[in-house]
């Protein structure tokens, strides 16, 4: 039933039958069972004789329950009713025995035999109800007399062993007459959570004399702004919150585990940043005050979930999914695909142990932004009578123009004569063609699953793959068995547009050239680039795809048709983060300074707002490009990247040539 609401007007009528929905006989019987000394019969007859009720003889009170911040009920009694009667009415509504109820009014615990008039409970007064947990055998145990310090005042409160922070707040609310929802309690230098026992804090159990107990501090919360990589949130804290407490508050926003986060306090200036490097220290220690800004540093490692059957992909934070089951649950919730129908692949491996940690499969998952492939549908385990593990060895057969072909050899898991070294190439991160590779999966998998596993290992797109039994092409829906004899990849003709620095006087302008790819096994370093194009590039040339520098050994069939590659000078900056680790960041002269900051934020976990790019100490416009800077102001060595008192220069690295001239 909907509970009645408190209203300001005394003239309006209220329906008090809901809070007191039991009959007088129910009240009397339950009260007599709890305490035979209470005489409810006289109360009942006296109350029934009053008709109509008058304001002088009735009291409407509001009972607020410490077990719920929002729950409160209205009760209508006579001023001559006892506290025991009020407890009986509360028991009827909430099922809590009277002996486990503690009622507090204006900071004083009300006794059962006292009347409302004797306790000076007036109309619309608020009484706080505290319920003792059932596991406490003696709710009436004598408590510890402790001081609760509010600003400069110290109030004495009897704290029973089972009192939690919420109970102390309820008592203090009744004393102060104001809501303390935005306050926290601190004892022995530790925060007391609303659900934690006050006397369970460190040191409390060792104190024998009440006089030795330090006071409980009631602290008000205040707002600070937490800013991270691409997000900003206002959070409520107190002076007693530790650095670790704040890390836990911002964990969901940063999508990084607290142990991998670092906090800084300041406005972003080089000399005014303070690193909050001790998790046990409080915000008071670091002088963090209201409206302060806390910078949250930490890279969020990403997992890209690719679903080739639906042509969709999405990104997950690595710190949010610890096991294979976590990923499947997320996909089930997002896409509606049952966990039992999902198959997950990475680097040619089938993730078939749902309880296994991701780190079990590859210790580099956190060292790179990894891609996990997901298939679903036909080929589920429950559709196959006998399920066995299958290992397929793909051996390079021949290499005709426009064709990549491997023969397939089945390998039994129990075959001790198989060469263990054949699968070593499958664990390599090199994209170059290998003489052999190995795929492990189950007999319940389909041909499509196998193609997906191969793409996850060697990046050959599923649409370019064909599997054969002799000369017969196998369909995607067929299951994997010992009929596969050959695999090939015949990529569609690939045309790549190369953006290069313009030879015109327009600094920073680009022009496009078109290059057709003739060989399916060609790598980037084998692509013929006209000499006049390379002459425009200063330093080491490199191919960039979506702002990412590609390795020279990348196979062209692994690049999606229609992609636009940028052939430009490679510019490097070594970024040292707050944890001391150095990351190589590669950009090119077409990058705007804001693009540089965004890439450093993504690769290193350093927020955009903390970074500064300067020339001779002067901060530069974010819309200026590296190429325009060099043409206008001179050497890259004077372009400095600044962060928390450290600075680094941009430079042209010198690597092995990654392009052929022709």
Quick take:
16% of the residues lie in helices and 31% in strands.
Q: Beta-strand percentage?
A: 25-35%
In the sheet with the most strands, the strands line up as 23-21-22-26-24-25
For the termini, the CA-CA separation is 84 Å
Please give the CATH class of the largest domain: Alpha Beta
Judging by the overall fold, what is the CATH architecture of the largest domain? Roll
Q: How helix-rich are the residues, as a percent range?
A: 10-25%
DSSP helical segment count:
11
Total number of strands: 39
Please summarize the sheet with the most strands: 6 strands, antiparallel
**Full CATH superfamily name of the largest domain:** Phosphatidylinositol 3-kinase Catalytic Subunit, Chain A, domain 1
GO molecular function, one term: polyubiquitin modification-dependent protein binding
GO cellular component, one term: nucleoplasm
Protein name: Ubiquitin-like domain-containing protein
Domain Ubiquitin-like: 59-130, 144-198, 301-362, 406-482, 571-629
């Amino acid at each position: 039933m909907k509970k009645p609401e408190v209203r300001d007007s005394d003239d309006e009528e209220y329906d008090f039958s809901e809070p007191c929905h039991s009959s007088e006989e129910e009240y009397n019987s339950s009260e007599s069972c709890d305490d035979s000394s209470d005489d409810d019969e006289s109360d009942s007859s006296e109350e029934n004789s009053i008709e109509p009720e008058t304001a002088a003889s009735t009291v409407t009170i509001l009972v607020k329950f410490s077990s719920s911040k929002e729950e409160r009920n209205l009760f209508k009694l006579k001023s001559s009713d006892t506290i025991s009667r009020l407890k009986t009415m509360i028991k009827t509504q909430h099922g809590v025995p009277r002996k486990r109820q503690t009622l507090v009014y204006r900071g004083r615990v009300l006794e059962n035999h006292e009347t409302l008039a004797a306790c000076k409970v007036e109309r619309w007064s608020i009484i706080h109800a505290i319920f003792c947990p059932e596991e406490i055998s003696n709710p009436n145990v004598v408590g510890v007399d402790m001081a609760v310090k509010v600003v400069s005042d110290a109030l004495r409160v009897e704290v029973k062993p089972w009192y939690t922070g919420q109970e102390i707040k309820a008592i203090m609310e009744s004393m102060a007459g104001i809501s303390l929802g935005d306050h926290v309690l601190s004892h022995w230098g530790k925060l007391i959570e609303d659900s934690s026992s006050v006397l369970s804090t460190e040191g409390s159990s060792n104190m024998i004399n009440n006089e030795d107990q330090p006071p409980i501090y009631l602290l008000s919360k205040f707002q600070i702004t937490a800013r991270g990589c691409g997000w900003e949130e206002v959070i409520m804290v107190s002076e007693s919150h530790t650095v670790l407490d704040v890390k836990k508050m911002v964990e969901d926003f940063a999508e990084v585990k607290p142990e991998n986060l670092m906090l800084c306090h300041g406005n972003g200036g080089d000399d005014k940043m303070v690193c909050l490097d001790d998790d046990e220290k409080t915000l008071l220690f670091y002088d963090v005050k209201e409206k302060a800004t806390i910078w949250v540093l930490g890279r969020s490692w990403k997992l890209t979930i690719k679903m080739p059957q639906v042509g969709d992909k999405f990104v997950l934070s690595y710190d949010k999914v610890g096991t294979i089951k976590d990923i499947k649950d997320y996909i089930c919730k997002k896409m509606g695909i049952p966990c039992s129908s999902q198959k997950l692949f990475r680097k040619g491996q089938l993730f078939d142990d749902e309880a296994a940690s991701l780190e079990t499969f590859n210790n580099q998952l956190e060292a790179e932004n990894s891609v996990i492939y997901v298939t679903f549908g036909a080929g589920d385990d429950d559709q196959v009578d006998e399920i066995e593990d299958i290992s397929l060895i793909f051996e390079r057969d021949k290499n005709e123009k426009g064709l990549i072909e491997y023969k397939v050899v089945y390998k039994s898991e129990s075959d001790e004569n198989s060469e263990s070294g054949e699968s070593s190439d499958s664990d390599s991160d090199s994209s170059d063609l290998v003489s052999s590779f190995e795929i492990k999966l189950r007999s319940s998998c389909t041909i499509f699953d196998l193609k997906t596993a191969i793409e996850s290992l060697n990046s050959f797109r599923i649409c370019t793959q064909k599997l054969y039994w002799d000369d017969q092409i196998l369909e995607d829906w067929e299951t994997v068995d010992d009929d596969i004899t050959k695999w090939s990849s015949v990529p569609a003709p690939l045309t790549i547009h190369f953006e290069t620095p313009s030879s015109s006087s327009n600094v920073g302008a680009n022009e496009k050239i078109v290059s057709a790819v003739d060989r399916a096994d060609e790598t980037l370093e084998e692509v013929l680039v006209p000499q006049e194009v390379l002459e425009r590039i200063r330093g080491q040339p490199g191919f960039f795809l979506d702002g990412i520098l590609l390795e020279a050994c990348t196979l062209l069939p692994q690049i999606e048709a229609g992609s636009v590659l940028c052939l430009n000078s490679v510019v490097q900056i070594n970024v040292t983060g707050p944890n001391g680790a150095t990351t190589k960041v590669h950009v090119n002269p077409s990058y705007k300074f804001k693009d540089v900051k965004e890439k450093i934020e993504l690769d290193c976990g350093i927020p955009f707002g903390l970074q500064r790019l300067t020339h001779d100490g002067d901060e530069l416009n974010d819309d200026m490009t590296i190429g325009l800077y060099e043409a206008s102001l001179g050497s890259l060595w004077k372009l400095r990247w600044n962060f928390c008192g450290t600075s680094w220069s941009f430079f042209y690295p010198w690597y092995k040539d990654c392009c052929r001239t022709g």
